[in-house]
Amino acid sequence: MIQRKQTLFLIELIFLGLSLLFVPCQDIITTTASTHVYLMPLIDFQSTTGHLFAVILNFIGLVIATICIFMYKKRELQIKLCYTLLAIWLVLPAMMLFCPFVVKTEAITEIKINYFVVAIAVFSIIAAILAARFIKKDIDLLKSADRIR
Asked: What's this model's pTM, rounded to 2 decimal places?
């Protein structure tokens, strides 16, 4: 299980998804202070539905990547889950770039996007593609071994 390359890429997906919980996605600059917005439910400000959807997508991505690691005997389902992860990780950075995560009020003067989070999401997309590719190679290898028998 661990010795397979796609498992390492799925573990990388889990670590990158967990890092999004601790790296600020946006910075909110108010008239008095600056606050960071993470992919966790907000306490100080009123979050938008886009933020809640991004939090849920990140959580679903973490769960699917964890499940996908342990589905190594069902490779067809594993590759479908990897494509689902790819779709989730394609939507998530777009939401981080284009959706404001906080309802804008008079006290908020500016909302800045942290582009490091987008880089994390791009690495996650690459890891999902590589995991699906190596699972596909495993499937092809098993099919060719079955033909020889």
From this structure: 0.83
